[in-house]
Amino acid sequence: MKKLDLLTPIGIFVGMTMIFLAVFANAGAGNFHFFVQWTSIVIVLGGLSAAIFINFTSRDLKLLPAVLKEAFHSRHYDLRELVEIFKDLSQKARREGLLSLEKDVEETGDPFIEKGILLAIDGHEEKTIKEIMMAEVVAMEDRHQKSRSIIEKAGEYAPAWGMIGTLVGLVLMLQSLNDPATLGPNMAIALLTTLYGTLLANLVFIPMANKLAGNTEEEVFVKQIIIEGVIGVQSGQNPKIIEEKLGAFVPAGRKKETEEAVEEREAVYDQA
Length: 272
Fold this sequence. Notes:
By secondary structure, this protein is an all-alpha fold. It contains 11 helices and 2 strands; from the N terminus they run E-H-H-H-H-E-H-H-H-H-H-H-H.
């Protein structure tokens, strides 16, 4: 289930707030305009955009809005529910046969589970099912990596363009050493471009790329559990064995949650 991940906007807001507070505490609100230098902003954002355009194709860049949207969302996977799904599917398959699962997999709402079970129903061997499902996992990782690379490259290029802006400011400053009135503005360009580039990289792009990578890792992890569950159902394993095998993938903290959920469910059955 996909939901809005508030930690991303909160993190950006907290980082910017700390910088604003540091500026106000030392320079005062009246001097805040010194930290807004449009020439520096144009150099960093313009150079960064140009580098991204050169580095990627138009087809890749069309994915950027969706990638940025994903950075503000996360998927919640209920592993204990996943274990229960395969336990139930295994019980029914052993009792009524694999063909009886065709309607049940549609109710899971997960296309990957449905695909795996339907492959089993069609009579494919364990090796074939695993190869087909793993091929889909690898393809998904490649798609995510290609999309995420835009953000990663932005994180690499932003500080570099900050340094380029610094060099531009230093050149301008050296050319006008005989005019003290221009030293301040040129020095501002030199320093603020580095600030802007570093800030964009370390507060926005690199953290976003790392979050996207973490989301991909978790999705791959869940799909590996699903593959093991499908193979267990296809091979007719005992539901208890499937539960134990899939339970090995569940982290210790979530195992405790699973045990508590089972106890609660059994208590409800006892009361009924």
